[in-house]
């Protein structure tokens, strides 16, 4: 979730909250404050109902975070990088940047989250049974036990990319020894599950309650998009397998002098030639060299373009993220994503061989798709 803002780091993993999380937090709190808490504690005033509701909602979302940390912990144990964890409208997601390398690894990472939720459900149920007489603790504990059990069961639905879908894929992968085929089967089942949620949502909206039906429909829509995206990502990875940066990079890159103003650069090279990345000074001896991209130019206020030069705005050579020509295209894309870059120089023995960009990779994929190779 790119729009999440970071609030804390756990195991060096950034934990983020997406703006949509505040909406669902408010809805859950409103529901508890106007229904469960007044029914369980009629002797309390509305302010206390809202306070208990907010505290219960917060613990619920901490439970969602614990669920995602379960995935993250097993991923890190298996040396699979975790980019971050985000809480958002539909719960949470651990951004695991690599596919598991074996079916067993995927099974362990996928099952970890539901097992954490199941353990929390048991914990909160024990709290409820042991401390049922403690004021203001019983109802929240029972609610949290039920909601964690529902979270565990919902995620075990065999609809990719839910945890259950990933568990299902790991089993098919183990039996077939074919990662792509197992992903395709899991994604298709995931789409069927999504259509089931959408259909049930429409039926519920027409017969029982519009809001509940809308909620099921949204879940179905989310799962449908997630399943399609996951399969597309796997198909892309397969097409890029074995392809190196050298096969795709732009060899004839534009070189501009360091004393060229941004205004002239934009007029002549960007607007005139359509170029978006430039090597400054061509790495000439005794000259400060670097790389300048369209994003670097856009960060400079328009009124300063006529005064600032390419050398003043460029990213200097020593600070550049660089790739070797024999780097796999998948690794290059991962490195660009982690660094937030759209263009990277390809360097061999301190000599720039070319430039690689995300747009070039997309064009390469489109050409392969059109040619059927």
Structural account:
This protein is α+β, with helices and mostly antiparallel strands and 373 residues long. The protein has 2 domains: 5-240, no CATH class; 245-371, CBS-domain (Roll). It contains 13 helices and 10 strands. It has helices at residues 19-40, 46-77, 103-130, 138-155, 163-176, 179-207, 210-240, 245-248, 262-271, 294-298, 310-313, 329-339, 358-371, and strands at 5-10, 13-17, 82-88, 91-96, 255-256, 277-280, 290-293, 315-316, 343-348, 351-357. It is elongated.
Topology (elements, then pairings):
Blueprint: E1 5-10, E2 13-17, H1 19-40, H2 46-77, E3 82-88, E4 91-96, H3 103-130, H4 138-155, H5 163-176, H6 179-207, H7 210-240, H8 245-248, E5 255-256, H9 262-271, E6 277-280, E7 290-293, H10 294-298, H11 310-313, E8 315-316, H12 329-339, E9 343-348, E10 351-357, H13 358-371
Parallel strand pairs: 2-3, 5-6
Antiparallel strand pairs: 1-2, 3-4, 6-7, 7-8, 9-10
């Amino acid at each position: 979730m790119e729009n999440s803002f970071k609030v804390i780091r756990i195991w060096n993993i950034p934990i983020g909250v997406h703006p949509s999380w505040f909406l669902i937090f408010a809805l859950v709190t409103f529901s508890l404050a106007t229904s469960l808490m007044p029914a369980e504690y009629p002797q309390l005033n509305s302010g206390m109902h809202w306070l208990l509701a907010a505290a219960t909602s917060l613990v619920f979302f901490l439970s969602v975070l614990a669920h995602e940390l379960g995935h993250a912990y097993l991923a890190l144990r298996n040396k699979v990088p975790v980019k971050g964890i985000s809480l958002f409208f539909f719960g949470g997601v651990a951004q695991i940047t690599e596919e598991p390398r074996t079916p067993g690894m995927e099974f362990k990472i996928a099952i970890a989250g539901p097992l954490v939720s199941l353990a929390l459900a048991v914990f909160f149920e024990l709290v409820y049974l042991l401390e049922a007489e403690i004021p203001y603790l019983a109802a929240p504990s029972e609610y949290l036990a039920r909601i964690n059990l529902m979270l565990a069961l919902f995620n075990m639905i065999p609809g990719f990319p839910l945890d259950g879908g990933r568990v299902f894929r790991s089993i098919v992968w183990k039996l077939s020894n074919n990662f792509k085929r197992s992903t395709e089967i899991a994604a298709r089942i995931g789409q069927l599950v999504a259509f089931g949620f959408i259909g049930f949502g429409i039926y519920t909206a027409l017969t029982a309650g519009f809001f509940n039906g809308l909620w099921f429909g949204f879940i179905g829509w989310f799962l449908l998009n997630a399943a399609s995206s996951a399969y597309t990502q796997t198909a892309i990875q397969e097409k890029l397998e074995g392809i190196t940066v050298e096969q795709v990079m732009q060899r004839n890159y534009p070189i501009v002098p360091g004393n060229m103003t941004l205004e002239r650069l934009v007029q002549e090279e960007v607007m005139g030639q359509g170029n978006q990345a430039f090597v400054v000074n061509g790495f000439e001896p005794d000259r400060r060299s670097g790389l300048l991209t369209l994003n670097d130019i856009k960060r400079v206020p328009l009124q300063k373009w006529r005064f600032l030069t390419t050398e003043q705005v460029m990213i200097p050579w020593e600070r550049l993220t660089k790739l070797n020509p024999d780097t796999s295209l998948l690794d290059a894309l991962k490195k660009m994503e982690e660094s937030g870059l759209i263009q990277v120089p390809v360097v061999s023995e301190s000599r720039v061989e070319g430039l690689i960009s995300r747009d070039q990779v997309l064009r390469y994929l489109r050409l392969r798709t059109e040619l059927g190779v």
